[in-house]
Amino acid sequence: MAAFLLVTMMLTGCGGGEKSAAPEKTSAGEKNSATAQAAASDKKILVVYFSRTGEEYGIGKISKGNTAIIAEMIAQKVDADLFEVKPATPYPDSYEACTELAKRELEQNVRPALANNIGSLAQYDTVFVGYPIWWGAVPRVMMTFLEANDFGGKKVIPFCTHGGSGLAGTVREISAACPNSKVLDGLAIVGRTAQNDSAAAKKDVDAWLKTLGY
Prior knowledge:
Layout: H1 28-41, E1 45-49, E2 54-56, E3 60-62, H2 66-78, E4 81-84, H3 95-107, E5 126-132, H4 140-148, E6 155-162, H5 170-177, E7 182-183, E8 187-190, H6 191-196, H7 198-211
Parallel strand pairs: 1-4, 1-5, 5-6, 6-7, 6-8
Antiparallel strand pairs: 2-3
């Protein structure tokens, strides 16, 4: 987990043997500016993601999920907390079995139970939301997480790994699940790139984050 960026503002006096000069008065504008800077520095960021390990099409068995790799890159770059969404019943290691289950969940609009939850998002102002694309959609377990938590008033930034679909319609799905948040357009990275070409993936992540002001 990336450490919070804690900025403490300290006012120090000038010591010495001679009597110090009276401090200059601070204008209302300067006070407002200082208050705004302090508030901005207190903003906290979360990277929440769902990622799967096991057999991956065209790659083989993977020990770290494609989306997890990108989530860690983002968290390191923006100095954010990381939270991994996990289903109460893990998805199958077999690629074929997993895709069949994911298809059934999508067709039946299932909300799989979570093995964990974050408890509260109150301390976060910005939440990056990461997931693989399954059948052109957000995995149903990630929808469980989104609908179980309050994203009201937060900036929500999607990112995904995929096999050729890009973000598909997932930004709309996330917007529907988080109606009181500001959902931005996201980043899509090919899963094979995330897994096998970390330099290229990191370049894409850094360029994207730069457009967001990070």
